[in-house]
User: Which sequence fits this backbone?
């Protein structure tokens, strides 16, 4: 199955990279590479993540990687990563949910 990264997800990764790069550009780059590697496993196992509790939908799932939530949608022809957020962030109060965009 094809893996697709949305613009908001790529923007989120850029923000994470920039934040980590303040201390170490090397580790920032490595961390982002590992996020891409973790999400890449979804191509063969799209349901390996758990359902996102705030979504109450089976097609919206997440992988947890080192304290970050890689949130994605399973679609008939692809997997779409919609955002990457810190694990402590609760999306229940958000007016527009990341999986509703696009």
Assistant:
């Amino acid at each position: 199955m094809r893996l697709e990264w949305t613009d908001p997800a790529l923007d989120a990764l850029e923000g994470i990279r920039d934040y980590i790069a303040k201390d170490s550009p090397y580790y920032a780059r490595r961390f982002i590479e590992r996020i891409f590697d973790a999400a890449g496993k979804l191509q063969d196992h799209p349901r390996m993540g758990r359902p996102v509790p705030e979504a109450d939908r089976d097609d919206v799932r997440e992988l947890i990687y080192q304290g970050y939530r890689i949130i994605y949608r399973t679609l008939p022809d692809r997997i779409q990563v919609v955002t990457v957020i810190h694990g402590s962030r609760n999306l229940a109060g958000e007016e527009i949910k990341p999986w509703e965009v696009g």
Notes: The chain is about 30% helix and 25% strand. The mean pLDDT is 92.
